Request: fold
Amino acid sequence: MREILAERLRDCRKKGGYTQRDVSIYCDMTEKAYQNYEVGRQEPKLSIIMRIAEFYKVSIDYLVGLTDDPTPYQRKQ
Reply:
C-alpha cells in the first residue's frame, strides 16, 4: 500500500498544481512529514489520510489503491 499511496499523493499534488508546502499547511502537518508520505518512508494515520483526501477531493480508497476511481463518496447528512 505504501508505494501506491506515495505515487497517488505525488500524482494528485502535481495534477492540482500544488506544492508540498500547500498540502502540509492545509493538513496541519510539517512539510517534512508530507514529504515522507510522498516518498513512502512513512504511512500517515487515518485522520491525516482523510484530510489529504479532502484536500485533493478524492476518495480514501483511491489514495490507498483500493479503486482506480478518484471520485469521492457523497457524505451522508
Residues 54 and 77 are 17 Å apart (CA to CA). The domain at 2-64 is CATH 1.10.260.40 (434 Repressor (Amino-terminal Domain)).
